Request: fold
Amino acid sequence: MRKPLRKTWMIASALTLGMAVFTPLQAGATSQETTKDVTIQIEQQIKGTIKNIVGDGINVKGKDGKNYFIGFHKFSEDQIEKMNLVEGQEITVEGSVLKDYAEFYTFEVYKKGLPKEVTAEDLKKLESMFTEIKKFEKEEKYDEVEKMYAAMEKITKPYVLASWQPVSFEQYLDEYGFSEKNIVIKASEKKQLKGIYEEWVKLEKAGKEDKAQEKMDEFYKILQPYLDELYPPTPFDEYMESMEVDIPAEVMTKLKTIYEKAQKADKDNNMELSDQLWGEFYEVINPYFKPIPFEEFIADFDFEISAADKKQLKILYEEATALDKDGKLEQSEAKWDALYKIVDPYFLENKEILISASKLTFKGQTYLPQ
Reply:
């Protein structure tokens, strides 16, 4: 006889027409069981150690040796902040397993960012449109996704504008930190900036986006010299010091010329020229970079590699980096491809399991979404 699974049950809803719906939390299982009278949603429980913390979740090394990404999308920002999670902390997580990262972004998550004044009728429309977006994403119809988001914005924007409380001009300007660098904006220009800012706020509130953008362009045209002073470009010599490369003097002269042209292109917002010049810059400098030792390179992999594969990888790595140094990029690319052909199965085998957390327990405390 098959031994029954031990389950911890949590009632998720009251009895309705003789049918109960339960949400059990069961270690090591993720599925849905349906009987004639009961629908059971089984979630997974994992225990492990926090490897690192990202904005919307944590990476966890499970006690089962597997890697997990735990999404906190069901929790509020305030809750996440108050958790004070730290790397190396042991944690128990309960939640549902997802197939890909897009599944974290549910309508409930989207809805949390909406003003509370949005009516039930509009929420229903938005949910329907959101469902369509998910369908289009699966079908890779990204133009349709964009159109649908634009249509949703038409519904939400009046609510957003009505609830928007713009910061005062003084606070807006203070956030740049000019005073910390003792940068003083001329009184006449400050007065002008304040007038433009207040006009921009009115135009934004009125939904006149194009005119509002014109005002903001006008605002930054006046502010730009002060921003240049606040964020001066890094001098070439200082930039090169951070590189820790040994480059001949004649090459340094060439690099300096390209660097200064690239900086000017950045300042002029000439992105095409900027990309071209930075490409030239790194094409010149790349042969002088010393590759990190193979042992250091492989240490970044969060999994064990067999001795035979490691030996082969070392040969490929050293050949690839040598070819890179000689500027033989096509040949080096073939070596890198061969290297990752060996490594990719390891990455696949150790791929993170995605879990949307519905309960967190650590330091003797339990957290549930609010």
In short: The longest strand covers residues 38-54. The chain is about 50% helix and 20% strand.
